[in-house]
Amino acid sequence: MIKSEVTVTLSAGEQAQADQIAELISAAGFLPVQEQTVHPQTLRALVREQLAAGNPIPLELFGARVVTQAHLDRPRSRAAV
Question: 43 CB contacts (<8 Å, ≥6 apart)?
Fold first, then answer.
C-alpha cells in the first residue's frame, strides 16, 4: 500500500552526475526516472533578457508572447487650501 520515492535534485550543469546516479540505480535493479525541468520564472527571465538584448528568440517554442503594459495611477487628491 505504501510506496516510497527517492528524489535527488541537481543543479544546472550536473547532467553527467545525474546520468551516473541513474546508472547506479539501474545496476541495483531499480528503474530510475529522470526528469529535466525549467522553472517558469527562470524561463521568463531568459526570454526577457534575450528580447532586451535584441537577440532573436523563437517565442512560439516557449509558448511566449510580447505584451505591452501600461500602469496607471490615480492622481493624488489635493488637500483643501
Answer: 62
